[in-house]
Amino acid sequence: MNSHRILDHPVLGKLTIEKEIPFTFDGKKYTGYEGDTIASALLAQGIRTLRVHEESGSPRGIYCNIGHCFECRVTVDGTPGIRACLTELNPDMIIESGKQQFSPFKSTENQDDLPRTYAEFEKQLKGEKEDEPDV
Amino acid sequence: MDRIVICRCEEVDLEEIEQTLINYQCSMREIKLRTRAGMGYCGGRTCRPALNAILEKVSGEKQPHQIPLKVQPPVRPVSLGRIGETNYE
């Protein structure tokens, strides 16, 4: 289960396991140890993708690991935007990863044909020739 | 060359920033507004030094008259409930 842990560190010594803490990540049950952060407990299980980019869906995980970059934010017990790298694991936490969101207003096809202002829209509606838009 | 992501929050890569800089000959603030680099969840805390370094590299000199990327509060994301001092959470 916790196969990715360093059990015998050359400087820090042997890992002493205090207490097991059960938690849920995306509906699956896992076990961490007392003193784990959410990120370290999941990393020990081999889970490195904590969320995906909201728009593109590319995977994101631990980046700075000091609470700086907000790349590892997850939803904990319904509270969004919790940094997995700084939050200590509590028993029976329900953790959800960040999901891809819809982007209905991002137009890529015929983008240049679309009106940029309401005045342009009216002109297109009347079928008039379009002026060069002011930039 | 592999894609080098500079702003991870808004997923803007080095090539896009450099192309925008070359096309528009603009300040870093304008790059921010055009590409959204540095406007993401972390507030530009991760990529701001990189963005300024790219501008220096592309323009070849320090920009004395550029409008710098400013830092403005809140420097960390907070919920509206917390700003309003209600016990919403």
Automatic annotation (TrEMBL), chain A:
E.C. numbers: 1.5.3.1
A GO molecular-function descriptor: sarcosine oxidase activity
Keywords: Oxidoreductase
Oxidoreductase found in the keyword field: yes
Keyword hit for DNA-binding: no
Pfam families found in the cross-reference section: Fer2_4
Domain of life: Bacteria
Identification of the protein by name: Sarcosine oxidase subunit alpha
From TrEMBL, chain B:
InterPro entries (alphabetical): BFD-like_2Fe2S-bd_dom, BFD-like_2Fe2S-bd_dom_sf
Segments forming domain BFD-like [2Fe-2S]-binding: 5-56
Pfam families reported in the protein's UniProt record: Fer2_BFD (PF04324)
Protein name: NAD(P)H-nitrite reductase large subunit
Organism of derivation: Anoxybacillus andreesenii
